[in-house]
Give the backbone structure.
Amino acid sequence: MTVSAKGRYALRVMIALAARENTVPLKELAAQEEIPYKFLESIMTELVKAGLVTAVRGKCGGYRLANPPEECTAADILHVTETSFTASACASDKKDCPRAEICPTLPMWRALDDAVDSLLKQYTLKDFL
Amino acid sequence: MTVSAKGRYALRVMIALAARENTVPLKELAAQEEIPYKFLESIMTELVKAGLVTAVRGKCGGYRLANPPEECTAADILHVTETSFTASACASDKKDCPRAEICPTLPMWRALDDAVDSLLKQYTLKDFL
DNA sequence: TGTATTTCCTACTAAATTCATGGGAATTAT
DNA sequence: ATAATTCCCATGAATTTAGTAGGAAATACA
């Protein structure tokens, strides 16, 4: 029920990018945020694929936010990094749970997901600067 | 960020106990709820220690709720079973995170914990019957 | 054109956590 | 006594998370 190191790293890096205008190379980001270089590299790949970050290859390249800080929420970021970002496995994969139809707790898991999501949507990168 | 099988099992068993007046032996509970006997046994031990369930040893023994169903919330149960029931490791163990003082995201993790907790407190075992 | 700097891609390894299983001691109704 | 039960301690398997390694592809700049 805890956000992974990966998720916390991702959020931290996004805040770091929000604080800078130019593209920042991974080497610098990893050093500044004290995150293992190669691990961060894999995280950046995901953030790029999700459209939250823009990558510039080659010399003088690096990463920068794809959008203004106030347009990127904590929910956006964590949905990318957290493999199963839902309170209960049942709530997301209906077919995986044969009890879904009769499960008395399903409504609660759904409500919990909604509560978490709506709270995380309230925080944008701008709020962390 | 997902509630473990252990947590879901615990909730299910507690609902099952809430639906019955008498003490129910583990053997029966495990069969009815289709939960591995020995795994459930370890879960019951925790629930007993937490004071949510009363155990009766010996022949004709078993488990029953320690309190009326309307007095036991989902939060009570999940706090027992989930090893780290907090959105971020930082939010619970201050000393583990050297950045706690300056961390811009800590308030959000705290708010998330509060949101989750207050929602889970709204559901009692009675609501699931 | 060559070189240094950078992201991209694929595969692998290590550590931690979750999910169980096994055997037997202690307790209790009959 | 005996059978049915919880309690206690240790171990093992499976899954997920965290971190590493090496090199290919792109790009700025001399």
